[in-house]
Specification:
This protein folds into 2 domains: 95 residues, Sandwich (Immunoglobulin-like), CATH 2.60.40.1120; 544 residues, Beta Barrel (Maltoporin, Chain A), CATH 2.40.170. The strands form 7 sheets. It has a 22-stranded antiparallel beta barrel. The protein has a 5-stranded mixed beta sheet with strand order 8-14-15-12-13. The two termini are 52 Å apart. A hairpin with a 2-residue loop joins strand 10 and strand 11. It has 813 residues and is mostly beta strands. It is built from 7 helices and 44 strands.
């Protein structure tokens, strides 16, 4: 807290160094003033909006040459280079655009300059420079409070992330305002969307509850992606990268530009392959993106079709800590305690301690394809009123294949096999677990803006229909099962209706009021049996009201302070329901009260900000060690828990070609009155331990990122990118025996561009990851048990690759 107030005092004092101001009026060719036009200094976050008379004023500008930019929906941007050595007055005239721009598709769900929300915008230029084949989470890894992980250790294949310690199934993700989270698991599996970042215009990350949007899991953070917008000129681009672990990426993109002043078409084709750092942790990924649009000065109609297909070898079991630490006695306990077979134990002992993979069956793979169809419509009734609507359909299908040794027939509802006088009760087999699902629906929003009021109302209706089933495709003993015998099937059907209204209202020239309320209704039913043959039939209904309220104070055009409160609710996901003990306490919805306060300051050469947050949870679902009626771990609601912290951000242009960008999160994350349950193998029951106040799992108290960029030549950039993540507990007991060590990782990024004749640009990239060869793990799981009066554990850690590199080239025509 002391650090925050010291920083606040420093930032406020910076204002005294600014000297000049720019003011003026924005109007149209027909001499109508434009209230609500955005006025910014290009290359900075300094800006303001025009008042009801079209007037604007930006103060505290240091002596320099700046690029002034003025924009308004439906009008062409105005840009002018201005030398600021005195107070300047300028009149700006905007011309109507021949076509409406696509920013309107995401405005309803995004946080504007006046919204009291902690947010970060990642633009296309930054995405392109860092996109050498790694998944979207790794492209966002330097944003505040963001921690990534990768099963295969390279950022290719299955990847995940947390924001403020909040796991991904509590984070809302949308594309063009359309929900992307799986309706049942609430997760986004980025491996199903390989190289999607090549078709993204920008990504906004809102931390905390954020503003109202569509879909489930808007609980701890929001990621809002916008796909490529209109490019008026035809283009073609080819990008390729290659590097360690036989990682390769090839992407080809083309676009027609604006045809006959109304039509545009874009397409992309991508392929990514990698062997992975972990043994057999390979990935084979491919995707495409096709888009077509019709544009007029008031209307846009656009259709997007994109698809991804993944084939990955499983690396999701992790590496036991006894293997990482080369603990021979501990590894032998895996066999002695019936955790591994003798063969599996010996394979672990003989393996490399940092690349070991339990799975050896040649086709222990995950296979999935997901197709997305979006139709987007926007119409501008007048400069102040805009309507958006979207329809969407997603079809996903796939399976993961497993070899199973010595499984009991009864586990598959099969009969024992009689051979002569012998009764065979188990068999080796190969099985596939399938998911076949469809997700469809529609959204709309209506936005009204004037000099004092920015009002949005919107609604969405979505339906999910998912089939879960399993087949045995081979067995040593067939029993009475037919070919491709199906041993379980269940169906989940979920409808989600939401409606929201939100407004920013200027109480005075400097003080803005924000109000937002959302209502959600969820109907969810499950029918059928699970893979353990349990009947899953159940129905659930939820009604949530999520209000938000805040104030933003603009001291001047360079700085603002804000205060906000928001409430969020989240329904349990599928596994919370299906894993629950039918005879025990059932999972209930979680509630979050989020209180945030922040301050931002921006100048041409320096910007900084601080955000304080206090997130109080009611009935948060966590792992306590409790099990259901068949011994599987379940998540249980805990009465009281919280996260609180401060996020500090700063960017400084040290000299003209040297820029430092840093952010740090300091936090405390606690469960009050936690009770841990541990399996007792001696009694075949569970022992309870009252732990008092403990730290929430996977919630480091310190997360820090830094990027130092040096540009010795106009077209050359060299960046040192660093991240420190403090130690984390991997369960909620706060035991150092079950934790991830802190790590400090440095990456080197070099980019160089040339501009030969007949080619717009050739851009070369070099990325050296883990420059200092740090040995570290970013994720883990653990299972604890009591045997002979002692506590033991079975666990899996996910090491990340040592020093590795990627080189790439982007050629733009």
């Amino acid at each position: 807290m002391r650090t925050f107030f010291i920083l606040l005092a420093v930032l406020l004092s910076v204002n005294t160094f600014a000297q000049y101001r720019i003011g003026g009026k924005v109007s149209t060719l027909s001499k109508n003033v434009l209230p609500g036009a955005t006025v910014t200094i290009k290359g900075t976050t300094i800006g303001t909006v025009t008042d009801k008379n079209g007037n604007f004023k930006i103060e505290n500008i240091e002596k320099s040459t700046i690029a002034l930019k003025v924009s308004f929906i439906g009008y062409s941007d105005f840009q002018k280079e201005i030398t600021v050595d005195k107070d300047i007055s300028i009149d700006v005239v905007l011309e109507e655009k021949p076509v409406l721009t696509e920013e309107v598709f995401v405005q309803a769900t995004r946080a504007g300059k006046q919204t009291p929300v902690a947010s970060t915008m990642v633009k296309k230029e930054q995405i392109q420079k860092n996109n050498l084949g790694q998944d979207v989470p790794f492209l966002l890894s330097t944003t505040p409070s963001f921690v990534t992980t990768s099963d295969a250790g390279t950022g290719v294949g299955y990847t995940g992330f947390r924001i403020r310690g909040t796991d991904a199934n509590r984070i809302n993700v949308s594309v063009n305002g359309i929900p992307l989270n799986d309706a049942e698991s609430h997760c986004v599996y980025w491996v199903n969307m390989p190289d999607f970042s090549s078709s993204v215009e920008n990504i906004e990350v809102q931390r905390g509850v954020g503003t109202s949007t569509h879909g489930a899991a808007a609980f701890g953070a929001t990621i809002n992606m916008q796909t490529n917008t209109l490019r008026k000129n035809a283009y073609a681009e080819y990008s390729a990268s290659a590097g360690s672990f036989n990682t390769m990426k090839n992407t080809f993109s083309v676009g027609s530009g604006l045809i006959a002043d109304h039509f545009s078409f874009d397409a992309r084709l991508s392929k990514i392959t990698s062997d992975g750092f972990i043994d057999r942790g390979w990935s084979k990924l491919k995707s495409f993106y096709v888009s077509g649009g019709y544009y007029t000065e008031k209307t846009i109609l656009k259709v997007n079709v994109f698809s991804g297909a993944e084939n990955t070898y499983q690396a999701w079991n992790g590496i036991p800590s006894v293997r990482l630490n080369s603990d021979l006695a501990g590894m032998k306990l895996y066999e002695d305690h019936w955790l591994y077979s003798s063969t599996q134990t010996q394979e672990m002992i003989d393996s490399d301690p940092r690349t070991y993979n339990l799975y050896t069956y040649e086709n222990e793979t995950d296979n999935y394809q997901q197709d997305h169809y979006q139709m987007l419509f926007s119409h501008q009734f007048n400069p102040n009123l805009n309507f958006n609507a979207a329809m969407h359909y997603t079809y996903g299908r796939g399976y993961y294949e497993q070899f199973r040794a010595d499984d009991d027939f009864e586990d598959y509802a099969l009969q024992n096999v009689i051979v002569g006088a012998d009764t065979i009760t188990s068999t080796d087999l190969i099985r596939r677990k399938w998911l076949d699902n469809r997700f469809y629906g529609g959204t709309f929003s209506l936005q009204y803006t004037n000099d004092k009021l920015d009002f949005t109302m919107g609604s969405g209706w979505n339906k999910y229909d998912g089939n879960h089933f399993g087949n045995i495709i081979w067995a040593q003993y067939a029993s009475n099962g037919a070919k491709d015998f199906e041993w379980y099937r269940s169906e989940g059907v979920k409808t989600d209706f939401n409606v929201y209204a939100k407004a920013n209202y200027g109480l005075t020239e400097k003080l803005n009021l924000f109000a937002d309320v959302q209502y959600r209704n969820i109907l969810y039913s499950i029918e059928g049996i699970d893979d353990d043959l349990r009947d899953l039939t159940q129905d659930h209904t939820f009604d949530f009201v999520n209000p938000k309220l805040g104030l933003t104070y603009f001291a001047n055009s360079n700085s603002k302070a804000y205060l906000s409160w928001a409430m969020g609710h989240r329904e349990p996901n599928r596994s919370n329901f299906t894993d629950a003990d039918p005879n025990g306490k059932q999972p209930t919805a979680e509630t979050l009260n989020d209180l945030e306060a922040g301050y931002d300051y921006h100048s041409e050469n320096f910007s900084a900000g601080a955000n304080l947050y206090y997130m109080r949870y009611k009935d948060q679902l966590i792992l306590t060690g409790e099990i259901n009626d068949v011994g599987s771990a379940i998540m249980t609601n805990v009465d009281d828990s919280y996260r609180m912290g401060v996020e500090l951000m700063a960017t400084a242009k040290i000299v003209s070609n040297l820029v430092l960008d840093v952010n740090t999160t300091l936090s405390q994350n606690r469960i009050l009155n936690f009770t841990e349950y541990v399996d007792n193998w001696d009694t075949w029951g569970q022992d309870a331990f009252e732990m008092g106040t403990t730290t929430i799992a996977f919630s480091p108290s310190v997360i820090a990122n830094g990027q130092l960029t040096y540009s010795p030549l106009k077209n050359l950039g060299i960046s040192l990118i660093s991240q420190f993540v403090g130690s984390q507990f991997i369960d909620n007991s706060s035991s150092t025996d079950r934790s991830l060590d802190s790590y400090f990782v440095n990456n080197l990024k070099v980019s160089y561009s040339v501009y030969p004749e007949k080619i717009k640009e050739i851009e070369f990239h070099l990325l050296v990851n883990n420059l200092l060869n740090e040995e570290y793990e970013t994720n883990a799981w653990v299972y604890s048990y009591l045997l002979g009066g002692q506590r033991y554990k079975m666990d899996g850690y996910f090491p990340q690759a040592g020093t590795n590199f990627l080189v790439g080239v982007n050629i733009r025509f």
